[in-house]
Amino acid sequence: MNVVIIEDEHLSAQRLETMLKKYDASIQVLAEIPSVAEAVQWFKENENPDLVLMDIHLEDGQSFSIFERINLDVPVIFTTAFDEYTIQAFKVNSVDYLMKPLNYDELVKAIEKYKRIHAEKEESGKSIEQLLQSLHRKEPEYKSRFLISIGSRLMTVETEGIQYFFSADKITFLVTTDGHRYPVDFSLDKLAAMLNPKEFYRINRQMTVKLSAIENIHVFSKGRIKLDLNPPMKEDVFVSLDKVVEFKEWLGK
Question: Which domains does the chain have, with CATH numbers?
């Protein structure tokens, strides 16, 4: 079986390939593609694989737009960080999904489903059309909780209780209302698609803050803006100069 993986996080793509090989060593991964644009180009230049495993949020947009740019008649298993209640509207006969973090048993079930559908010669193109129609009908829904790994223990943190996210040393952390800090598996770029933009705003390259976390706003010369957050950060928190105008518009919405 020939497979293409469309995933913009290299470690996730590698882990997925490892699980595929564990399931069936004869599976050939033809390509690992990180973006919508590169996926469109690849499918234009190559024959369709038997199966595509595709992350919903890529570095340059939602993967659903691939099907809007080219006629891609191929079975797809989506991977996503969305909660299950959100993705149910997208689930159709020839399209399955895997929740992140990826689970081997769930991958096996998804591939077995693909095999059943393929054996029955169902038309995956119709399923994709249903998926896109469902996507356009749905109002956007945002991530309600995050799965956190602490050593050998797993826990969940409700988005409602998160005050801000920041990156340091190539790791992204969330900070809760009571001041606890936990690492998360998503970059700030990825989080932008998961968080309600009415509540969260990315003020600079290292930080995304929640409106309720802002206690004071200080305006300095040349338009610089400094924020006092709750819980406080050890370092001063500034809004990037190129985001000041947009930040003020966000505050006034």
Answer: 2-137 (3.40.50.2300), 145-252 (2.40.50.1020)
